[in-house]
Amino acid sequence: MAPQRRTGPGTGPYEVVTMGRIGVDLYPAQTGVPIPEVASFNKYLGGSPTNVAVAAARYGRRAAVVTKVGDDPFGTYVRKALGEFGVDDRFVGTDPHNPTPITFCEVFPPDDFPLYFYRFPKAPDLNVAADELDTDAIAAAQVFWATVTGLCAEPSRTATLAALEASRPCPFTVLDLDWRPMFWDSPDEGRRWVQEALAFADVAVGNLDEVEVAVGTRDPRGAAKRLRDKGVKLAVVKQGPKGVLAVDDSGEVELPPVPVDVVNGLGAGDAFGGALVDGLLSGLPLTTVIARANAAGAIVAGRLACSSAMPTAAEVDAKLKEAADAR
Hints:
The protein is of the alpha/beta class. It has helices spanning 48-58, 73-84, 135-140, 156-166, 187-198, 208-215, 220-229, 268-282, 286-301, 313-326, and strands spanning 16-19, 23-28, 41-46, 63-70, 87-88, 92-95, 102-105, 115-118, 143-147, 172-176, 203-207, 234-238, 244-248, 251-255. The strands form two sheets. Strands 1, 4, 5, 6, 9, 10, 11, 12, 13 and 14 form a ten-stranded mixed beta sheet that branches. It is globular, with a radius of gyration of 18 Å.
């Protein structure tokens, strides 16, 4: 997309480029009550791949996001928030016809967090077109991160596949399996496009519902094998309270979750993704990568917000030490 202004730190190629959903999260200030009884809401930058970029920036990584917002005050807020988080907004386009999306949630700890997406008549991030992409910037990145939601509608579907193809020179191309059924006609339709996207992925990340849509099984090891059979080098299967399974050429790692008193489970997966990216870029052993990602997810699950809750490396280290001391 046409460059607008540089807000991210440093110069040269990006370490992390993400692509897809962006918007505003309006989360209730009162937890444990349904939306009709909520008295006030807090406003945050939102959208899964956007949160991953924010999480990566927290570790000092030079990050950018490829997306679009509406020509409205919420779009202005989103651009401002990206700059404050150190994420470059030069690839954030403007859709003059559709409003910036808003997402509401209800917060019922420990495990019930209903989401209500307002992406009507169409989300601007689904109107990113292939001819608007800076494929050179994508190809030069060390990590390119795309989500399955970007495949649910045109022109974003074609653009996402084009970006994935352009990312072949990247050391790591990550496909977040990110299944949101309300954006699709059926799981079968989703599986068709996920299968096509997996052909470009080095890393695939998803929970049990997401891997079932992607490869047709909820069995963690079976799903990891099927993902690997598709050419994925690192398959990461999140199993909720049973922990995380990660399989690469060196073998498998399975770790339990880091204990946490859950405040809001939304955003934990994005924190996991940001830490995963940082660990891969740091060349850490797989066990360490997954342990740090687990800790980052736990930290955000213990906080109300998503983007502004993303932890620093020091906070992740402290959480790991706290978990070790508790054993």
